[in-house]
User: Fold this.
Amino acid sequence: QVQLVESGGGLVQHGGSLRLSCAASGRTFSSYVMGWFRQAPGKEREFVAAISRGGLRTYYVDSVKGRFTISRDNAKNRVYLEMNSLNPEDTAVYYCAADGSVDTAQTLRIKSPEYWGQGTQVTVSS
Assistant:
């Protein structure tokens, strides 16, 4: 069982930055690919980024590539999402997710996470 708790969301101006953090419980954090999803009002939840179990590989969707950076600290059971050059289209609830499947460990394309956080709101004003 893994419990995920996000923090770091808030209101930021267009062009600004935020750093989201996700704290995970449990002793098996390093066995999970970790990722971030987001859900904007009236839209489906979308996959944003993922990081491999050891932290050496990352994956980003095109809309955030070059602006967002995912990282993890397995000693602290934490995963982070550094978001720069934010624009109003990034406004959403951001969710931390954990996926322990072998397939995801290879592809980093998280499709069905086993665990979700409760989400943290990010609002970018224009």
User: Anything to note?
Assistant: The first helix runs from residue 102 to 107. The radius of gyration is 13 Å. The longest strand covers residues 92-99.
